[in-house]
Design a protein that fits this description.
Layout: E1 3-8, H1 18-27, E2 30-36, H2 40-51, E3 56-60, H3 73-86, E4 92-101, H4 109-125, E5 130-135, H5 138-145, E6 153-155, H6 162-170, E7 174-177, H7 188-193, E8 199-201, H8 223-233, H9 238-254
Parallel strand pairs: 1-2, 2-3, 3-4, 4-5, 5-6, 6-7, 7-8
Helix pairs in contact: 2-3, 8-9
């Protein structure tokens, strides 16, 4: 069995054991990693890290928390994408994480919305899927998303309700599940309801470490614990879950590679 960690941040400065985490992932059957940017600097770091490692790809993004401090992400991201295409390395597979976070409101809502539009326009221009971060912002998110017909993507770290899950599925979005599922017992019904055809696995490392490693720094190798939990919850085999989630990851992120 093989696995893909569709969302991690092991390329960032705060992650001390980058190469060790990469090696343990490969040894544990987690053979594809997507390093996700949260601002210009971390997006550039993700590209550099991926270029130095096999089986690592990149999503360029500006997290909603960081939108207030944004400078010129269009220029930065465009240069990175064009260089990726020119050099034929094909490391950049998505835009994001981007979206709306009204739980913390670290950036003004107006700025979050403005930068979300900018990133969705880039995704459409370059025909890239989008990794969405949406927390308590779905009322504003859906009208924005619906303006970009044909856009594809994933709702990263999904913790919302069944109503928004159904709406996401009706729009053809994938659902990213990480370590939260292993300890958020009030969301068991949501994780049980996610159909295999829409499920993606992720860690969000170094954050959101799953059971049984709570308290430790998260890493891509731990995606297998999330897989075990979801397989048991949905009463399916690990093999079936692996086949489905690998097929989904390939279809969303790697179908043009």
């Amino acid at each position: 069995m093989t696995w893909t960690d569709t969302h991690c941040h092991i390329h960032e400065d705060r992650y001390e054991d980058k190469n060790g985490a990469y090696t343990r992932a490969m040894e544990g059957g987690v053979e594809r990693l997507i390093c996700v940017g949260t601002d210009e600097k971390s997006s550039q770091q993700a590209v550099e890290f991926a270029r130095n490692h096999e089986n690592i790809w990149v999503s360029l993004g500006l997290h909603p928390h960081d939108t207030a401090a944004a400078t010129n992400i269009v220029e930065t991201f465009t240069k990175l994408i064009e260089k990726d295409k020119k050099d034929h390395v094909d490391k950049i597979v998505a835009i994001g994480e981007c979206g709306l976070d009204y739980f913390y409101n670290h950036s003004p809502r107006e700025k979050q919305i403005e930068l979300l539009h900018i990133q969705l326009s880039l995704a459409r221009k370059y025909d890239l899927p989008v990794i969405f971060h949406v927390r308590e912002g779905f009322d504003d998110f859906w009208p924005i998303f619906e303006q970009y017909k044909g856009l594809r993507g994933v709702l990263h770290s999904y913790t919302d309700n069944l109503t928004n899950l159904d709406k996401a599925l009706s729009h053809g979005l994938y659902i990213g599940v990480n370590g939260i599922a292993t300890f958020a017992k009030d969301r068991t019904d949501v994780y049980k309801a996610i159909p295999l055809v829409a499920l993606l696995l992720e860690t969000d490392a170094p954050f959101l470490t799953p059971v049984p490693h709570r308290g430790m720094v998260n890493e891509p190798a731990f995606v297998t614990h999330i897989a075990h939990y979801i397989a048991n919850l949905q009463s399916i085999s690990l093999e079936e879950l692996s086949r489905a989630t690998e097929r989904n990851a390939t279809k969303l992120f790697f179908s043009n590679k």
